Target: Actin-related protein C1
Amino acid sequence: LSPSVVVALCPNNNEVHIYRLVEEKWEKVYVLQKHDQVISSMDWSARSNKIVTASHDRNSYVWNLEASEWVPTLVILRLNRAALCVQWSPKENKFAVGSGAKTTCICYYEQDNNWWVSKLIRKKHNSSVTSVSWHPDNILLATTSTDGKCRVFSTFIKGVDAKDSKKGTSPDTKFGELIVQLDLSSSWTFGVKWSPSGNTLAYVGHNSMIYFVDDVGPSPLAQNVVFRDLPLRDVLFVSERKVIGVGFDCNPMVFAADERGIWSFVRYLGERKAVSSGSRYGSQFSEAFVKFYGQSKQGLNNDAVETSRTRGTVHENCIKYVLFVSERKVIGVGFDCNPMVFAADERGIWSFVRYLGERKAVSSGSRYGSQFSEAFVKFYGQSKQGLNNDAVETSRTRGTVHENCINCIMPLGEHGKMIRRFSTSGLDGRIAVWDLENEQDLFE
Model:
């Protein structure tokens, strides 16, 4: 999504569709066609106004707007497996591509030959690279992989990066050198992000844990937060001490660090009170319906827990991507629908804070329809997470923005700045723009 009123998306095929907001209506203005297979990732640079795309066809294109037309430039990645993720560097003079070939491509523009060149970081990953994230210094690159590890590499390229930009690393660090390998997770790892200052690294594992690492280097300081929900897919720093995590459960989670630097879960994002349907019998049946579904899905038997289906949130499936909103706050989105806020406190300790975007439900106006809907959702909600709570409300009655997996989250602004607005897109074919001006607790 461009910071203005233009949005780019891939409708799960080999095309990029660009829409412009005209008189409060979205109009399709461009269709970019060049890839042979589905586009897996894209990134739109804020300053240079270039779009980079990566695809399962193992190629990448850089799109430049010239005379009202988007002109593609092929980037040969030299991959024998699909390109999975792509991201521009903070200075937008490089971009990184993670792949299923166990390699990461660092691409830069070669002025003399007028083309984009790729250099490969080889033989470090033992499986597919699931995400990449640039350090604010434009040199360090963090990656996660399905081999269960998070790694940080040097991407210094002579003639592209200035020598003083290596001040955060060893003076003799070469391209592709492994700075640190983090073996904190016993499962697949996803969604790595740096804090706005670059002092903290956060990533998530498929074991329902989120990891925070300070002083990335030979002797990093690491801590993890375990949560009871389904695994996360991505995280986003909203500020230096707050992070939002999103994943396979429908509710964004907020983590924050206290004054000692200890990270912990704080709350779900955007929670609100339930709206009663006014039907005693419908409510009773709903509670039984949800409880049955929840216990069958996760085998829980906890009278105090609350399920994502009862919170009235936006997302209802896996949340996959995250976004830095500020130096210590992060927002994430994904398959089950609710952005999650994570934050770091004054000690640098990260924790979940809350969910984002919950709102009151809109009544259907039909007594019998309302009773049946409430019963159905209640049954589904409790069966999803094994609840036993007579006062819960289900998400089916809330009227949410997304109705399926949210697979992308993008900031509306430049790297290194406070994030006040971001966009999400999902498998329901919808794009939503979020404004955090009313979420005052997400900012320092």
